[in-house]
Design brief:
The protein folds into 2 domains: 16-387, no CATH class; 389-443, no CATH class. The chain has a 10-stranded mixed β-sheet, with helices on one face. A 9-stranded mixed β-sheet has the order 3-4-6-8-10-12-14-16-18. The radius of gyration is 22 Å and the shape is globular. The protein is 24% helix and 36% strand. By secondary structure, the chain is an alpha/beta fold. The chain is built from 10 helices and 19 strands. The chain starts with 10 loop residues before the first helix and ends with a helix. The relative contact order is 0.09.
């Protein structure tokens, strides 16, 4: 006798199933894309929303946090059109690509000023074009396989951008992907972008996750990065201006060729529940990846940084370094896994997480992991959780500084060390200004 176990669906899961059923025929894509959507949603239906029993989601129980699944927002609505004029002032200097509610907006993007070697297309247009290689590139095999959030994104992706940087191109200004949620009723956005960096190309890519007004929207975004041999990419991310009930999921799927350099940095400055996950694989030898970040959390906000770095070839280097400043009843999570495959000899890997807790109610969960199947490697990890040093505070206060100013100086110094890794001076200055403003606003 066999017993069939039936999974009990939450209201949010039922709503997502109904949402896919009603929208699947209207979502962009040819026959191959529709097959990808169908397969991805079948995977999501089997697992449901990620929860504590899924090891990589143990500290971020989305099933219990997502009480209601918001509807998709439709381009062309009055709220969408009204929000367009509020986005323009948010666009920083650079080659800007604007996504509003997951929809690529050409009229706000710098398509007329793109330099030679940089090509940008709307994902919706490319999905309908019949590009036979696009499906494989949008969902690279072996990266994030089985992740429920990635499956849900693949099933419901509405839009995004496809960016090609020709071999040997060096961009004088940053390439900016500005993802903004519009005002109005609570809604959801699913988008996926692809950035292909040709051999020997060099650029700075700056992702900004923002909102027209602080609200409780839901966003699931994916960025796929392909780096050709000898390419160099500085990938910066800022997630900010989100309501305390907003849910933001950001996934990065990156593959590196030979002799590549990837430098990533993310600033998470409040934002409800934020889950940023990175899946990076070395496909070519003698490449290096640095993945770093800083989280600033207050209230009851929750930020989870989870990454998997897969060394499948020898002679590669990876560094992961994350800092967290956590106040009130906020929660920080860092999960880092480095996998060294049997043939990946001469791997050099290291990860570190450091957190400062500013109240007795603040929480930090660290889970560094190493899976090493080769014997000629150098790998290590470490994690610390502490409070501000009383001796340092006493020293500054003995020089006449009020306690609040003394705390801010120490916290700025702690944060600045993380920002030192940002090579683009303009971006580093803007990020540090954001950090200083956040610290100054603390009570």
């Amino acid at each position: 006798m066999t017993t069939e176990i039936t999974q009990i669906r939450t209201p949010a899961e039922k709503a997502l199933i109904s949402l896919y059923a009603s929208e699947k025929d209207r979502l962009p894509g040819n026959k191959a894309v529709k097959a990808l959507r169908s397969q991805a949603f079948a995977e999501f239906e089997r697992s449901g929303l990620p929860h504590r029993r899924i090891e990589s989601w143990h500290y971020t129980d989305l099933r219990s946090q997502l009480r209601e699944a918001a509807p998709l927002f439709t381009a062309g609505s009055s709220e969408f059109e009204d929000s367009l004029r509020h986005v323009q002032p948010k666009i920083p200097e650079g080659y800007a690509l604007v996504l509003l509610d997951g929809t690529f907006v050409p009229e706000l993007s710098d398509l007329d000023e793109l330099p030679p070697g940089l090509t940008v297309r709307s994902l919706a247009d490319v999905l309908a074009s019949g590009d036979a290689t696009l499906v494989e590139r949008l969902a690279p095999k072996g990266l994030g396989t089985g992740d429920p959030a990635l499956s849900l994104n693949a099933a419901l992706m509405q839009g995004g951008a496809v960016v090609d940087i020709a071999p040997g191109t060096e961009l004088a200004k940053p390439l900016i992907i500005l993802s903004v949620m519009s005002a109005g009723a609570v809604h959801a956005a699913f988008h996926r972008s692809l950035v292909r960096v040709g051999a020997g190309a060099k650029l700075t890519l700056f992702e900004i996750v923002d909102a027209v007004e602080i609200g409780s929207n839901q966003q699931n975004g994916v960025l796929v990065i392909e780096m050709g041999d000898g390419a160099e990419l500085e990938h910066l991310t800022r997630i900010s201006r989100q309501g305390a009930d907003a849910i933001i999921i950001r996934s990065v799927l990156a593959t590196l060729g030979a002799n590549c350099r990837y430098d990533g940095f993310a600033l998470i400055a409040d934002g409800g529940l934020v889950r940023r996950q990175i899946f990076l694989r070395f496909d070519g030898e003698h490449s290096a990846a640095g993945i770093r970040g800083l989280s600033l959390l207050s209230g009851k906000r929750h930020a989870d940084t989870t990454l998997v770095v897969d060394h499948v070839v020898p002679h590669c280097t990876s560094r992961e370094y994350f800092k967290h400043i956590i106040a009130d009843e906020a929660t920080g999570v860092y999960q880092g896994k480095v996998i060294v495959r049997p043939h990946a000899q001469k791997t050099d890997g290291g990860m570190k997480s450091r957190a400062l807790l500013l109240s007795d109610s603040a929480s930090m969960f660290n889970k560094p992991e190493l899976e090493i199947f080769a014997d000629d490697v150098v790998c290590g990890h470490g994690a610390t959780v502490a409070q501000l040093d009383d001796d340092q505070l006493f020293y500054l206060r003995s020089r006449g500084l009020p306690r609040a100013e003394a705390e801010q100086l120490l916290l700025e110094a702690f944060a600045a060390e993380a920002l030192d890794s940002v090579r683009d001076e303009g971006a580093r200055g803007r990020l540090m200004t954001y950090v200083s403003d956040w610290l100054a606003a603390r009570k």
